[in-house]
Design brief:
Blueprint: H1 2-45, H2 52-61, H3 63-98, H4 101-126, H5 129-135, H6 142-148, H7 153-182, H8 186-232
Helix pairs in contact: 1-2, 1-5, 1-8, 3-4, 3-5, 4-7, 5-6, 7-8
Length: about 230
């Protein structure tokens, strides 16, 4: 009995370690895959020839700047999400205790919507750091992302919402359809992972197109400003 329990514990521990290793490897390789897609889109835009191995190699050359900037972005993301949640919870609870529970809930909902929009806009302004790090070799890229998204924040925010809805609808449809047919099985997990890979590719391609569009617009604006400065001399 003890030996079987020990065997169960060791196998469970091995499975947990395997999941951790897979998670870490996925975390490290995901930026590389996204960067490779960005390089491929740029080559297509410039009508340049490329191979899968060549864009992957280009992506690995930017690995450490991507990793450092992504970790920093994650810390910033945690801060700008956590602080509003604490403010909303404290404000709602205070008003509910001092005035009326219903009023506290309404104030909490309004604050949540306002903070959600504000946080979404901030994330949008900084989210193009990744393209800056990969394609323009600017690290950590937050200042360039802020400059590129100027005057286009609401449009970009709306596009992010559209992409999120597309990804969510596809994921929900796959889970609903195949879940009813296959139940909770290994095959369902495999299909769900393939669907996630597909939706991630859609989002990555959309992100790359958005970034290159912003870059083209910004380069045109810079050129226009240079011409205006030259003419004013």
């Amino acid at each position: 009995m003890d030996s079987s329990a020990g065997s169960f514990d060791s196998s469970s521990l091995g499975a947990d370690i395997g999941l951790i290793v897979v998670g870490v490897v996925s975390f490290l390789l995901f930026p590389v895959a996204e960067a490779a897609i960005l390089f491929a889109i740029q080559h297509i835009k410039n009508e340049e020839e490329y191979t899968v191995s060549s864009v992957i190699k280009e992506a690995f050359l930017r690995f450490w700047p991507m990793l450092g900037s992504s970790i920093l972005f994650g810390i910033i993301l945690l801060g700008i999400i956590l602080i509003p949640i604490l403010i909303v919870a404290f404000s709602g609870a205070t008003i509910a205790a001092a005035v009326h529970p219903v009023l506290g809930i309404l104030v909490g909902i309004l604050l949540f919507i306002g903070f959600a929009i504000g946080v979404g806009l901030l994330i949008t302004r900084w989210s193009f750091y990744f393209g800056s790090v990969v394609l323009d070799k600017v690290t950590p890229g937050f200042a360039r992302s802020w400059r590129l998204s100027k005057k286009r924040t609401w449009v970009l925010f709306g596009l992010y919402i559209v992409f999120y809805l597309i990804v969510s609808i596809i994921s929900f449809a796959v889970q609903l359809t195949f879940g009813a047919l296959l139940g909770d099985s290994v095959l369902l997990g495999l299909i769900s992972n393939l669907a996630s890979l597909f939706t991630t590719m859609i989002f990555s391609v959309g992100y790359g197109v958005m970034y290159l569009d912003l870059k083209t617009r910004n380069d045109a604006e810079d050129l226009k400003e240079l011409i205006e400065d030259y003419q004013s001399i």
